[in-house]
Amino acid sequence: MDPETYESVLLVKSEVFVFKLPPRASNRAYRAADWNLQEPQWTGRMRLVAKGKEVVLKLEDKNTGELFAKCPIDKYPGVAVEAVSDSSRYFVLRIQDDNNGRTAFIGVGFSDRSDSFDLNVALQDHFKWVKTSEDIEKEKDAPKPELDLRFKEGETIKINMKITKKDGSEVTSKPKVRPSSGGVLPPPPGGVKIAPPPAPSVNSSPSHQPTSAKPESWGEFASATNATPAAPVTPSNPSWVQF
């Protein structure tokens, strides 16, 4: 059901007092002490009723429910419901006559301070809801800019991939190089392999060199000018061999 078409009761107080206001001498705030509080003009119940965004405070007979006066409230705090300066239990209401549209001001009050507190809270909550509803409607009607999620020219994006283990630790997706057995890293792929030196063969000894090869130059022993004369071969020196 549309909330604009039915009434909802925000607050009910079984006893409220109505007072006649004395002539206002100046623009100073109302004072409940000037109302002759011992002699209220009327006693009945109060109902705070909302219809959509509109809210009305109704003063009704306790037994028959007959309407005594009603106070349409356009905002709070405001002129329709005004607090007095000397008490938190009393208010000044601007009542309205539907027959001729005339308005008048009366004083109302509660015997318990908690009743006036409940009235304050109920009015504040209603107009807070009204403001929130209006803000939502404005956001719906306001043009919304379109989001451009396309990549601009030359723009790139970088994604850091991570893998989470079962124990909660994270590892990167880049593979790690593991050392081979013995702690020595394997050679890089595609490297140049150097062949080991060849083992010496029998044909490479000096005694088997070909005759065409040029022999080493040992010099001529006989032509050495400073050579020491060879010792004569004697039985005491058998190690020398005569050439």
Protein model, in words:
The protein has a domain at 8-137: Pleckstrin-homology domain (PH domain)/Phosphotyrosine-binding domain (PTB) (PH-domain like, Roll), CATH 2.30.29.30. The chain has one helix at residues 113-141; strands spanning 8-19, 42-51, 54-60, 67-73, 81-83, 90-96, 103-109, 162-164, 170-172. It contains 1 helix and 9 strands. The model is unreliable at 221-225 (pLDDT under 50). The protein has 243 residues and is α+β, with helices and mostly antiparallel strands. Helices cover 12% and strands 24% of the residues. A 7-stranded antiparallel β-sheet has the order 4-3-2-1-7-6-5.
Give the SSE string.
Answer: EEEEEEEHEE
Q: Major sheet: order of its strands?
A: 4-3-2-1-7-6-5
Named at the architecture level, the CATH assignment of the domain at 8-137 is: Roll
CATH topological fold name of the domain at 8-137: PH-domain like
Low-confidence stretches: 221-225
Which superfamily, in CATH terms, is the homologous superfamily of the domain at 8-137?
Pleckstrin-homology domain (PH domain)/Phosphotyrosine-binding domain (PTB)
CATH domain class name of the domain at 8-137: Mainly Beta
General shape: elongated
- Mean pLDDT score: 77
Task: Give the helix proportion (percent range).
Answer: 10-25%
Rg of Cα set? 58 Å
Q: What is the tally of helical segments? A: 1
Number of strands: 9
Share of residues in strands: 15-25%
Class by SSE composition: alpha+beta
The largest pleated sheet is described as: 7 strands, antiparallel
Report, as a whole number of angstroms, the end-to-end distance.
Answer: 142 Å
